[in-house]
Structures are given as structure tokens and as C-alpha cells.
Q: What sequence folds into this?
């Protein structure tokens, strides 16, 4: 693949209109000296106002234990702030390290009050009391030149050490400075008995941790005065390899205190060398060799995260918590021209005429008013003649839905489709008594603000595979495959009895009009006892194969060649072997008066396999769900 260009140099924020860069003074300073807690807010406001006026940028941290600051700006502005810092009691001799750049390395100015100016996480550490002795950079250089038996202990984080450190220094592989106390305690006794020189970027971490090191048994513990930055000033690169990480937009400086060609990963903030940002794993603003995750691993991680979200939402059973249920009732063609009180039972059979009358009288059935105000409605007359497509709002207070089986397994996710395997009872979409306890509602919450679209239908009492599309363009491509019979669908079903056949194809037609209980019936000529042919009957064909016979039940594989509502259920019932647990269909194909789905035992029908052309790539793909979901 082509080599990627390194990130651009930080822009010269402070430039004259002519384009000539100003000289920017960068300072780093800290001092552990107690500041009265009740004075911190006053000092903070003073520095905020002063830095704003002087157009300085950087960070000032204030705490009861002292001050820590990184600032950049003009010479006069920096000197003015330092004068204010030195006016604080105990800060008169605060040491300052500085360097020069031709651009502003900070984007903004922050003044914060913190519990610690350098967090360690050990409350017993008091940096001012009994601090470890300091060794100057020049003296340390002499020790190293003379090859004295001294251990150099790097107290910085792993990403800082990666850019450069002293030759032979001990690296504790710290992710954060809070890990230092425990890591230092694990050092062997032979290290604790020799002279140990701690060092960090500017010295602040070593000064904070020095007293604690004595308590760990280090007999001769020193800290490098002024840290690596001071060492660079006085000794340049002697005995040091690489650059030094700094906490501003320079990222790193070389021993000459000049910004190096090191950059910072936008995603993980890890410093990057030229080799890093020429790596194939570097994508500017996205990843680098330190945070790059292979696509297959990333998809696996994303799938686990999404699965956890789906499981959490499904287990909440949000529909079981009382809520105000508002749903639209659309008048169907067969109810047009009837009084409202007669049309409603034809539309929703779950309510009696008396219940609908009571709902109308209480104002629970209403027409939307001619206003944009949400849910604003007007009352209606039960004898009002309705029109096809007319919509009424049905409001039910303190509504609760039947519980569902919340087991939803996320099998596949890409930019075009989402494939899940669901349990039962679990409706696909809002209907009847379900509004929130549906697969569609659960996935809507899990993928918010994205809206998934089901590519096909599956019964509430059927377990197994359901495919959703993520964009309209993919929905149209995949839904057409289902409607045109181009999707290979394979089901498993446990049926009552032991069929006399091993394989059979059922071609009985199915009536297009729904029954009052929401089910379907066989076509006119196919009904038990005969019947009148209906030109609206739909052709239907299902192939069945017996896979196992067990006692009074049999496991059957079903391959529907057409896609009619309840097709497999009706055909098996018509063949004299209803599905075990089917709450609706009886032997011969007739149905019960009502489908008491949520009160019934699980129906052992399982959507086992699906094969179709991927709506984006066109490649034929197959999905298979766990067949153990369908077992006696």
C-alpha cells in the first residue's frame, strides 16, 4: 500500500499578519509548598484573568500541596506570570525550565484546582517532608562517566520511556504514575541497597515519590534535580538515548531542547516516531501501531459490546413497566362505511364491543386535532361512519405488556445487515398487546439513533433467525429477495405424532383474508368438509422431511417454497401433525377461537437457516442458528 505522509507540523498559532513567527517562550515549573485551601479559588481567579489578558496558553495546576505549571507565550507575558507565582508564600525560589519555539504549542489556557498536582494515589505521601536528596545533572554525568555502581530508575509512563531514556535505566512499564508505588516495591533487594537515582521529565514526580521510596527500603535514593529537561540544558545528550516526551503539542524535544519529529496519535495519544507514522497501521486521526486493532478483532469486540447492550435492554422488559400506551388504529378496507363501534372490533379482535364503547366514552378513542401540538385530540361519536385509512388514537393509561423471552443472540453485523437469533415469545414488531416488548423496539434502543428495518417477518412464537437492514438502499435489495422467493429458508419443527411419510411436499393453498383470531385458514377447496374456491386464495408450497422420531413426537425439517403467513404451521396441521405447542392450529388445519400466545407453552418451530445474496456485495451468504433452541 502507498506510504502515508506524516502529520503536519503544529501550526504557528501566534504569527504576525506578515507570516513572520514570533519567539514563543515555553516554561515548565513546579514547587511543593503548602497553599492554604481557602486561598486556592482566589489564586485561581487571579491567574485566569492575568493569563487571559497576557494571551498565554497552557496549564496551571493548584493544590494544597503546591503548584505545577506549563505555559507558553511572549517573554514579557511569561515573566509577568512568574512574578505573580513568586509572590505566593513559599514560591519565591521556584525553579523554572524554559525552551524556545516559533509556534504556540498549546491550544488553550486552563487553571485548575486539584487534590494533587501530580497524582500518586497514596495519601500518606507528603512530598515536602523528608524529601530525597537531589543530584545535579552535571554530578550525575560525572558518576556515569566514571562508571559508578548506580541504578537509574525511570519513573515515567511506558509511552514516555519508549521515546528515550538513560542508557541502562530501569523501566517499570507503567501505564500511569499511580502504578509506580506498587511497581517500585517489587524491585529486588540488591537494587534497594545500591545508589538509586530517580528521574522524570522535570523532577516533579521524583520529588513527590522520594519519601515513599525510603519507606520501601531504598537505602541511598536520589532524584535528578530538574529532571531530564534540566539534564538536556546542562549535559546535552551524554548517556541519554532518544528524545524526551513533553506534555504539549511539541510532543517531544531532542537533547538540544528543540521539537523533534515525533507526533502524537489522535486516537490513543501515544507518541509516534517517523517509523510509526509510516507504518501500514497508521491512519491519521484513526489509529497507529500502538492502538491498531485488526478488522476481524475489532468486529469481534464491537459484536461483544453490542450483544451486551442488546441483552441488557431485552432483560429490562420495558413493556412490563406501566406506561401510557398510545397507538394508532387505521381503518381497514373491510370496515369502511361502518359505524366506528362496529369497525373497531373488526380491526382489533382483542377487545369486545362493550370494551370499545367504554373506551370511546372515556375519551380513550379520539381523532387527532388540526394542530401541531403532540397528542392533541378530539372526542368521537361511536356511530360516526368511518372511512378506509382513517386513523384514530387509542390511549391506554398504566398499560403493561405480557413478558417475553429476552434471549436474543447477535450472530452477525456489518455495514449493511444485522442478523439475530431470537427466543419466543417475542414479537418482531408492535402489534396486538405488544408495543415495547418487541424485537424491533429492543434493537431500535440498542442501535439508537440508527433505525434497523426487518427484511422479513417471523412469528412471535417462532424462534430463530431474523435479518435486519441498516439503510434503505440495502432494505430494498434484500426485501425483494424474500418477496421473489430467492431466499433459501430452512426451519425445524417438532410435530405431534409420527408421520407415515419420510418426505412430502404440501401444496395446499392458503386464504389471504385473516381470521378474527389473527390466523389464516386453508383455501376454499382445501378446508376439511369442503368449501367454495376463493379467487383470493394464495398458492403455497412447503417441503417436509422427517429427521427424528421420538415417542409421540417427530422432528421435521421444513423448507417453504412460498412465503405465506403461518404457512408451515397450517400445512403441518393440515397433514395431521400440528407443531408441538402451537396455540392456534388444530389437526386438519382449523384454528382455535383465539391465539393466547403469551400464555401458551413454547411452540417448537425454529427458523434454522437462511441463505441469500448480500445486499451490498452480492455474494451468497448463509447463516445458521443454534438448533437446540428447538428441542423437546
A:
Amino acid at each position: 500500500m502507498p506510504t502515508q505522509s506524516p502529520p503536519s507540523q503544529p501550526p504557528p498559532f501566534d504569527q504576525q499578519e506578515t507570516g513572520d513567527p514570533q519567539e514563543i517562550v515555553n516554561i515548565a515549573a513546579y514547587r511543593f509548598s503548602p497553599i492554604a485551601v481557602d486561598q486556592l479559588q482566589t489564586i485561581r481567579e487571579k491567574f485566569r484573568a492575568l493569563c487571559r489578558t497576557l494571551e498565554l496558553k497552557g496549564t496551571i495546576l493548584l493544590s494544597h500541596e503546591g503548584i505545577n505549571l506549563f505555559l507558553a507565550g511572549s517573554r514579557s507575558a511569561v515573566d509577568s506570570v512568574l512574578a505573580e507565582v513568586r509572590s505566593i508564600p513559599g514560591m519565591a525560589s521556584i525553579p523554572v525550565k524554559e525552551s524556545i519555539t516559533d509556534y504556540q504549542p498549546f491550544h488553550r489556557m486552563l487553571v485548575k484546582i486539584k487534590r494533587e498536582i501530580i497524582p500518586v494515589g497514596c495519601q500518606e505521601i507528603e512530598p515536602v517532608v523528608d524529601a530525597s536528596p537531589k543530584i545535579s545533572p552535571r554530578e550525575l554525568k560525572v558518576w556515569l562517566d566514571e562508571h559508578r555502581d548506580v541504578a537509574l530508575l525511570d519513573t515515567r509512563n511506558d509511552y514516555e520511556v519508549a521515546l528515550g531514556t538513560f542508557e541502562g535505566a530501569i523501566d517499570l512499564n507503567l501505564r500511569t504514575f499511580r502504578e509506580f508505588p506498587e511497581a517500585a516495591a517489587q524491585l529486588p533487594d540488591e537494587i534497594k541497597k545500591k545508589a538509586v537515582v530517580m528521574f522524570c521529565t522535570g523532577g516533579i514526580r521524583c520529588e513527590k515519590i522520594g519519601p515513599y521510596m525510603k519507606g520501601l527500603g531504598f537505602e541511598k535514593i536520589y532524584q535528578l534535580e530538574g529532571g531530564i529537561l534540566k539534564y538536556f540544558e546542562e549535559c546535552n545528550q551524554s548517556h541519554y538515548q532518544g528524545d524526551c516526551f513533553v506534555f504539549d503539542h511539541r510532543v517531544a524535544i531532542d537533547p538540544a531542547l528543540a521539537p523533534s519529529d515525533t507526533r502524537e496519535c489522535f486516537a490513543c495519544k501515544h507518541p509516534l516516531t517517523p517509523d510509526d507514522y509510516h507504518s501500514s497501521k497508521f491512519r491519521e486521526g484513526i489509529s497507529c501501531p500502538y492502538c491498531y486493532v485488526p478488522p476481524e478483532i475489532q468486529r469481534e469486540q464491537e459484536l461483544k459490546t453490542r450483544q451486551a447492550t442488546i441483552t441488557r435492554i431485552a432483560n429490562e422488559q420495558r413493556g412490563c413497566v406501566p406506561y401510557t400506551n398510545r397507538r394508532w388504529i387505521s381503518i381497514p378496507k373491510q370496515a369502511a362505511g361502518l359505524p366506528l363501534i362496529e369497525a373497531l372490533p373488526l380491526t382489533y379482535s382483542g377487545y369486545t364491543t362493550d370494551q370499545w364503547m367504554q373506551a370511546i366514552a372515556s375519551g380513550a378513542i379520539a381523532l387527532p386535532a388540526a394542530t401541531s401540538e403532540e397528542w392533541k385530540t378530539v372526542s368521537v361519536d361511536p356511530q360516526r361512519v368511518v372511512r378506509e385509512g382513517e386513523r384514530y388514537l387509542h390511549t391506554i393509561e398504566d398499560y403493561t405488556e405480557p413478558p417475553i423471552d429476552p434471549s436474543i443472540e447477535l450472530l452477525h453485523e456489518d455495514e449493511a445487515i444485522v442478523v439475530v437469533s431470537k427466543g419466543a415469545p417475542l414479537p418482531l414488531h408492535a402489534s396486538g398487546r405488544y408495543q415495547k416488548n418487541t424485537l424491533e423496539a429492543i434493537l431500535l434502543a440498542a442501535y439508537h439513533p440508527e433505525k434497523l428495518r426487518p427484511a422479513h417477518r417471523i412469528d412471535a412464537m417462532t424462534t430463530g433467525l431474523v435479518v435486519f437492514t441498516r439503510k434503505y438502499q440495502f432494505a430494498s435489495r434484500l426485501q425483494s429477495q424474500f418477496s421473489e422467493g430467492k431466499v433459501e429458508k430452512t426451519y425445524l419443527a417438532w410435530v405431534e405424532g409420527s408421520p407415515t411419510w419420510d418426505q412430502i411436499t404440501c401444496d395446499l393453498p392458503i386464504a389471504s383474508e385473516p381470521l378474527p383470531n389473527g390466523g389464516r385458514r386453508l383455501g376454499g377447496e382445501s378446508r376439511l368438509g369442503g368449501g367454495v374456491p376463493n379467487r383470493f386464495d394464495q398458492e403455497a408450497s412447503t417441503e417436509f422431511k422427517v429427521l427424528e422420531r421420538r415417542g409421540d413426537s417427530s422432528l421435521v425439517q421444513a423448507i417453504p417454497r412460498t412465503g405465506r403467513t403461518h404457512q408451515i404451521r397450517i400445512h403441518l396441521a393440515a397433514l395431521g401433525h400440528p407443531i408441538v405447542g402451537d396455540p392456534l392450529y388444530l389437526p386438519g388445519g382449523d384454528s382455535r377461537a383465539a391465539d393466547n400466545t403469551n400464555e401458551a407453552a413454547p411452540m417448537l418451530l425454529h427458523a434454522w437457516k437462511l441463505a441469500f445474496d448480500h445486499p451490498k456485495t452480492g455474494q451468497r451468504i448463509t447463516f445458521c442458528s443454534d438448533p437446540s433452541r428447538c428441542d423437546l
